[in-house]
Design brief:
Two copies of one chain form a homodimer. Chain A has ten helices and no strands. By secondary structure, chain A is an all-alpha fold. Chain A has two domains: about 1-60, Arc Repressor Mutant, subunit A, CATH 1.10.10; about 65-230, Tetracycline Repressor, domain 2 (Orthogonal Bundle). At the A-B interface, helix 6, helix 8, helix 9 and helix 10 of A face helix 7, helix 8 and helix 9 of B. Chain B binds a DNA duplex (30 and 30 nucleotides) through helix 1 and helix 2.
DNA sequence: CCCCGAAAGTTAACGGTGTTAGCAATTGCT
DNA sequence: AGCAATTGCTAACACCGTTAACTTTCGGGG
């Protein structure tokens, strides 16, 4: 029970983790190639050359599997965003934020099914326990954007409203507690939520195909909106 | 074949229409009470005291039924918006638009499942023929907002960008053709799309529960955004 | 008025789904 | 070497959409 702590259940864990990963990989492939309705326990098992009940050794059920897939996608998106940010290491935060937002749109358009799984509905099938896995990975994603906004705020360019609704303050404080690192001003969190809402709308409406009726190429609208957002954040550079 | 045009197949049609309506009513109830995953052919038939194959006399399949339900919900939403507008008949268009936007949010929050069906859809079940029924009813809904923006534009308050992207112009012209009544300036359509995108983001992010992590009561944020939108539309009154 | 044919609704069946129970086999650790 | 945990299987149940073939109902034209 005590010795061999380093390799403790070493091989077991390794092969198990690989199985967990392969399940997610297969589910992801089905999601991409055949849409959200195709990511099914039986289909995943079939692809992997096993049977559906076997998957229950790895995930408690379909819901849990989807949730794990969701988490991994949040992580992938977060990585894509940080990569985009670090592709311009010397740039000022405004420019970096711009690139991050562009990367969000790019990722959404390149992976519409994945984006839909993350942001379309609370869940495809009506049920999510309110505060669970999505929290952690979701924050790792949102944190990338929030962090850049904090940097912008440090430069004194953001001028958030000073008259925050009292009801908000209590809630924003709760959000702040969830964040690691140095405390973030409440006003910045307010600005973050407002800007994120706007960014979400712009990207989602396009990725969900709700603009197909009007525009074949909504990029100009996106860039215009991006200008607007960054202007609101006090970023003058373009 | 020719005579009795007024009551032509009179009773038949009436009872059939009532059946069509009852199916939609039942599906709606299941959607509301048990979520989107519960609106099922068999469940609807069960609720109505019949069997699933019987429904095929009324709808070609599950997809068609959902599409019909979607259309009826678009109509209901459009009616709710026009009602909200007409509740302030003497108000200037800016005020009316404000009330319409508020009603949109109110409706979305009061009917989250319905809202999800209308606006989170293209994904969920992998299949929607791109340009079909949703067009008509969808426009009846969007037209309410567009119409008010046209009125605002007539007052000369909207100052849209004069340098429209050339690629846009062709597409916006197509949109304009879909609209009945007098021709709408392309710039107004541009502003409509931009504002609708923003409005959608604000309402959807809240209705889909993506703000639960941060705010219990996002109404102040919504009102702030609404102010912003209407200011952008040149409406000074509050 | 009656009868016919269209419309409505039924049962049976096929293939798909998530999920559970129980059993067999592999395999790492002591 | 043997124990026990882990893994995967088959069988089964309850759902789902959809089709085929049959029966019943009933409005309207002769």
């Amino acid at each position: 029970m005590s010795s061999t702590a380093g390799t403790r259940t070493g091989r077991r864990h390794r092969v198990r983790d690989e199985a967990l990963a392969e399940i997610l990989r297969t589910g992801r492939r089905l999601l991409v190639e055949e849409g959200p309705g195709a990511v099914t326990l039986r289909a995943i098992a079939r692809e992997m050359g096993m049977t559906a009940p076997g998957l229950y050794r790895y995930y408690a059920g379909h819901r849990d599997l989807i949730q794990a897939l969701t988490s991994s996608l949040y992580d992938e998106l977060a990585t894509a965003l940080t990569d985009a940010r670090d592709r311009h290491p010397a740039a000022e935060p405004g420019r970096q934020l711009r690139e991050v937002c562009r990367e969000l749109r790019h990722w959404a358009l390149a992976h519409p099914n994945e984006f839909g799984l993350l942001f379309a509905k609370p869940v495809t099938d009506a049920d999510t326990t309110p505060g669970t896995v999505a929290h952690d990975s979701g924050w790792r994603f949102g944190g990338v954007i929030l962090e850049l906004m904090v940097q912008l705020w440090r430069r004194g360019t953001i001028h958030p409203p000073t008259d925050l609704d009292p009801a908000w303050v209590r809630q924003l404080e709760e959000v702040r507690e969830h964040l690691s690192g140095e405390p973030v001003p409440l006003e910045v969190i307010y600005v973050f939520v407002a800007c994120w809402t706007r960014l979400y709308g712009t990207v989602a409406v396009e990725a969900f195909g709700h603009l197909d009726f009007a525009l074949a190429d909504p990029e100009p609208l996106f860039e215009h909106t991006l200008d607007d957002i960054l202007t609101a954040l006090g970023d003058t550079a373009r």
